[in-house]
Write a structure and sequence with these properties.
The protein is α/β, with parallel strands linked by helices. It has a single domain (27-285), classed as Divalent-metal-dependent TIM barrel enzymes (TIM Barrel, Alpha-Beta Barrel), CATH 3.20.20. It has helices at residues 3-12, 17-24, 39-44, 49-58, 76-88, 107-127, 145-166, 182-192, 210-217, 242-251, 268-285; strands at 28-34, 63-67, 92-97, 131-134, 169-173, 197-202, 221-226, 229-231, 237-239, 255-260. The strands form 2 sheets. The protein has an 8-stranded parallel barrel with strand order 1-2-3-4-5-6-7-10, surrounded by 7 helices. It has a two-stranded antiparallel ribbon with strand order 8-9. Strand 3 (92-97), helix 6 (107-127) and strand 4 (131-134) form a beta-alpha-beta unit. Helix 1 packs across helix 2 (17-24) and helix 6 (107-127) packs parallel to helix 7 (145-166). The longest helix has 22 residues, at 145-166. The two termini are 31 Å apart. The relative contact order is 0.13. Residues 6-10 and 12-23 have low confidence and may be disordered.
């Protein structure tokens, strides 16, 4: 028996090999929490990043996606105690979320943008995170979208070459601008042509027809952020149908984290616990 047969049969036990092979490709969704859910508390210092690990532990959440905007610094004095605290809480800091703008027209500007992402790759590596969410940016005035997409590809290629040597995946988020439409995001990822680049799929960021656009992106997803609201086919804001989102991820064979990113008006400290329970139930059901 070779290694693949053993893996397949251990998953499917008595099932025939062909059927078990299908089972081995089934999706695997794990609940997580995005630090941005507590942006007000982090900015005001009412809560700390270590507090977020405790929130995850208290609600049986496996993963923590750290939005880095409120890091006091990136020294070992800050990062390593945070990493230790999360580990002792049984929480995986699997991702960090950073700002970037890759719509840079000149080789020099592209190199500088890639270097900025590379510095965050080093931070992710020190935290033990295998993923970084990045933004494509906004098409500059006077440039075409095709031109800007080409610039994003160039930056991603540079950054991915370094990230791959560190074992870190870059997830390009659907975040308006050059990444407003699923077709363009998929095109950029395909042209970058790196096993270290995928899509950071945010359920709440498409301006219209969100479910269809998510379905197009799902096969390339390397991280997923679950929002409370979503936009319908005609662009109207409505409650996000989490079971529908989970089902399309399953259909795409997604394996990874689905992180709550709460952006509502209610205090996150009262709203998030109930939403994490709902997230658990949603993922378990599919």
């Amino acid at each position: 028996m070779n290694r693949r047969q053993w893996i397949v049969l251990s998953a499917g036990a008595a099932a025939p090999l062909a059927a078990a092979s299908e089972a081995a490709r089934k999706a695997r969704l794990r609940p997580a929490l995005c630090a941005y859910s507590f942006r007000k508390e982090l900015e005001s210092k009412v809560m700390s990043y270590t507090d977020l690990a405790d929130v995850c532990a208290a609600h049986d959440i496996a993963g923590l996606d750290l939005t880095v905007y409120w890091f006091p610094d990136t020294s070992d004095g800050f990062l390593l105690p945070l990493k230790r605290h999360a580990y002792r809480a049984g929480v995986h800091i699997y991702s960090i979320s950073v700002r970037s703008d890759m719509c840079r027209p000149t080789p020099e500007a592209q190199a500088a943008e890639a270097a900025g992402i590379q510095r965050w790759v080093d931070v992710a590596e020190r935290l033990g995170a295998g993923h970084i969410r990045v933004f494509g940016g906004v098409v500059p005035k006077g440039a075409t979208e095709d031109q800007a997409a080409g610039w994003v590809v160039e930056v991603l290629k540079r950054a991915a070459d370094y990230a791959g040597r560190k074992g870190v995946i870059l997830g390009l988020e659907n975040h308006g601008g050059i990444t407003e439409r699923a077709e363009r995001i998929v095109e950029i990822v395909r042209k970058t042509d790196s096993p270290w680049v995928g899509i950071n799929l945010d359920s709440g960021n498409f301006r219209r027809d969100a479910y269809a656009q998510m379905e197009m992106c799902a096969p390339h997803a390397v991280n997923v952020q679950m929002k409370v609201e979503i936009r319908s086919a005609d662009g109207k804001v409505e409650p996000c149908d989490w079971p529908r989102v989970a089902s399309l991820l399953v259909a795409a064979g997604y394996r990874g984290y689905a992180a709550l990113e709460y952006e509502g008006k209610e205090d996150a400290r009262t709203a998030v616990p109930g939403l994490l329970k709902k997230l658990h139930q949603t993922l378990a059901a599919v």
